[in-house]
Each structure stands twice: as structure tokens, then as C-alpha cells.
Amino acid sequence: MKIIQTPVRFYPAIGGVEKYALDLSSELAKNNNVKVICADEPKTNLNESNSIKISRLRTFLKIANTNITLSLPFRLLREKFDLIHTYFPTPWSSDWSVLIAKLKGKKAVISYCNDIKGSGISDIIAKIYNNTVLRLTLRLADKIIIIGPNFLETSKYLKKYSNKIIFIPIGVDTEKFKKINIDKEKNTLFFLSILDEYHQYKGLDYLLEAIRLVKKENPDVKLIVGGKGKLQSDYIKKAKGLGIESNVKFIGFVADNELISYYNKCECFILPSCDSEQEGFGIVLLEALSCDTPVIATDVVGIAREIKENNAGIIIEPKKADQLASAINTLLRDPAVYTKNIDNLVSKYCIQKTAQQVRKLYNSL
């Protein structure tokens, strides 16, 4: 079977969808012909990875977090394939992928990771798109994969298409993200995200406010902030304004080999996401759990219920710095309490099982 994957960006680009697309494509390429067509961001000469051929198209412009690659529809029209698998919430690449598949009489699958929303004018544009082009794309798609079990209930736009929706859990590469022989650093917390305006919903503002409160009980608490972006300097200023600059370390971009080390040596990984429409799953939580590190997250993340059921961390309400501070203090008192059932949780979310279900879906189409 020849499969075209069209994430808007691909490795070495970073981000939850990019990681998902890379790991899934790598598994599928073991017994299928897989080609990725994506935007040329970041600039790289890498045209093959894990038996995946990669075509990178020139970005004409970028609207919000979406690369507009004018050559995409023409490239897809020239390609020979059996099925296109695309990823949402990125208009343009997902819309053209589904449309071209239908024009060529082929099958189209969408991994729907979260809704699109914005603020100000961006929100108006998003609403217009969601009620026009998105509806057409979802109607034309043969199958829609949701990565969270409750996403059909929380999404504003999927209910009409429940007959073509299938839940396939997102997976993490447990052969790469695993426990290693490294000592934990006492009272150390880890947060990871792109630090730009499109990822403010990850909740770093609330985490910094919580650290100010945690410091009263744990003066030596240390928060490591991984990731870079346009807002990094703003977050650094905020930490200074809160009087916690000595407790927060901004380390910038973190490569995968370093990332595994940070996951292992921190006592807790934190993802205080504050918007259920924008936060689809939170794959970084799985990566941390795979490294045997408990987590703190809000109830908007896709894996919140399983974390709570397995006592693999603490789940709180979003936008509550005081709750977050209390959760941090509780976990730091005895982190080992939250590691007993981590393996049970992680075993459900390995990329090999995800790929197996996706292959079964492809074959059914």
C-alpha cells in the first residue's frame, strides 16, 4: 500500500502533531510505502528518515500557525497513492489532501487532534473557516481519527460526523522514551512547550504564578522550562517580576537525547493546559510517564482520566495557580506514591499498538 502523509510540518520540526506523524509514519513504513509531503520548515536537507521519503514544499506565507504551500495541490495531483492521511488543526494541507484524494478516487483519513480557535480577528476567521471549509473537508473524509476518547463530546464540529469517527489512542515510542539510570534531582519540575502566542494555552503563565506560591513551602524548588519562541523573553521577565528568577531556568530548545534525560531527572513533569479546544492530548505527558516520572496536568488534556485512575500524577482544574501549587507541594512530598501504576498506563499508549490499529483502519478502507 502506498500512503501519503501530509502533516503541515515534519521532523526535524517539533510539536505534538509533528512527533505523532513521525512516530506513526516510521512504524507504518516497516511494511508500507510511506511518503511525507510537508512544508519546508525548518530548513533542512533531510529528505529521508526511517525509510520515509520526504518532500518539502516552499512556504509562500504563514497564516497563524499554518504554512501555505501553493504547490501542494499540484504535487498531490501528480502523486500515485492508495490513501492520504492528513492532520488537523492545520487548514490548507488537510483541506487540499482530502479534496485531491476524492478527485482521484482514493481514500482520505484525518487525524483530528483539536479544534481551531483564535483571538480577535483570528477568532472571527477561525469561526468562518470552521463553518464552511472545515465542514466540507469532514464530509469528504472517509474516516476521522480522534486521539482522545472524549473528544467527540468536547469538539464543537465533530458530532455531525460520528458515523465516520474512530478513536485510536495516540502512541509514544516507548523504546526511545524510557527509564534510564540517572538520579532524580530533588524538588525539580519540568515543563516543555513552544514558547509563542499559539501555545499560550499550555499554561506556563499559571505555572510561574504557582511556583511563587510553592516557594513558600519549598524555597529550593526548581522549574526547568524547555522550548523556545517569541514569548520566551516575556516569560523570563514575568519570572523576575514574581521574584522567582532563581527558581526558574529557561533552557531553550531541547533535543530528543537531552529530553529523555530531563524527563528522567525531574521529580515531576507539569502541563497546566488551560483550553480544552486547543489542547488535544498532551503527548509530552506520555513521554514523561514512559520515563517513569509522575505528572501534574489539568482536566482538559486527553489522558487526564487515565492519569487519575492509575494514580500516575495529579489532575487539577485549569487556570488555578493555587490548585497547581498545592498539587506540586503534595507530589514533591512523596513522588514515589505516583509511580506504582505508571507501567499499566503507558502500556496502553505505545506507538506500536497505535500503528497496528491504523493499519487495520487503512485495510478496511
Description:
It is a single chain. The chain has 365 residues and is an alpha/beta fold. Helices cover 36% and strands 20% of the residues. It contains 14 helices and 16 strands. The strands form 3 sheets. It has an 8-stranded mixed beta sheet with strand order 3-4-2-1-7-8-9-10. The protein has a 6-stranded parallel beta sheet with strand order 13-12-11-14-15-16, sandwiched between helices. The protein has a two-stranded antiparallel ribbon with strand order 5-6. The N and C termini lie close together (11 Å). The model has no long low-confidence stretch (mean pLDDT 93).
The helix-and-strand class reads: alpha/beta
Helix count equals 14
- The helix/strand series, from N terminus to C terminus, equals EHEEEEEHEHEHHEHEEHEHEHEHEHEHHH
Give the averaged pLDDT, no decimals.
Answer: 93
Which helices and strands occur, and which strands form pairs?
Elements: E1 2-6, H1 16-28, E2 33-39, E3 48-49, E4 52-57, E5 61-63, E6 66-68, H2 72-78, E7 83-88, H3 93-103, E8 107-112, H4 121-130, H5 133-140, E9 143-146, H6 151-154, E10 165-167, E11 188-192, H7 204-217, E12 222-226, H8 232-241, E13 248-252, H9 256-265, E14 268-271, H10 283-290, E15 295-298, H11 304-309, E16 313-316, H12 321-333, H13 342-346, H14 351-364
Parallel strand pairs: 1-2, 1-7, 2-4, 7-8, 8-9, 9-10, 11-12, 11-14, 12-13, 14-15, 15-16
Antiparallel strand pairs: 3-4, 5-6
Helix pairs in contact: 1-14, 2-3, 3-5, 7-12
